[in-house]
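Appendix B. Raw example, untouched.
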Amino acid sequence: MSGVVILLVVLGLVVLAGLVFAVMYNGLVKLRNKVENAWAQIDVQLERRHDLIPNLVETVKGYATHEKDTLERVIQARNMAISAQGPHEQAQAENMISGALKSIFALSEAYPDLKANQNFLNLQEELTSSEDRIAYSRQYYNDTVNRYNTKIQTFPSVFVANTFGFGQREYFEAEGEARGPVSVKF
């Protein structure tokens, strides 16, 4: 009789370990999918921003024809951002766009007619709205990456994560000129 009890206890422990393993694995999968979804949301907002930039540049061109360098920097930054891969490279490219856009918005101070142009004002408002959405999406993404990275590094889920190849994810961080003031030269 004691052999049957030992067998049942061992079987119970195996089933319990299997359940714990399944719950940990499923939790990691859910977090990984949240990270991927959060990145997709950032991508949507960045694409919206990228689509607005050519219209803004065309509007400014009509008023600030001798500001060619500023406009070219915006287009170059946009093109780099479109081709960027991964959070780190994407963050660097987006930081360049942010700096270039600040320069364009500063141009409106030097060109009163541009500042009064309704199309420019609408595009400026749309880009400002996009910046807010990007900031929110970036925060959500980084929070989700933090939860995911913490989960795959803590006991006991670290064993499941290592066994099934759950790797760390990069944060989407501002670097360089996006952290400081932008200098505008005319």
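End of appendix B.
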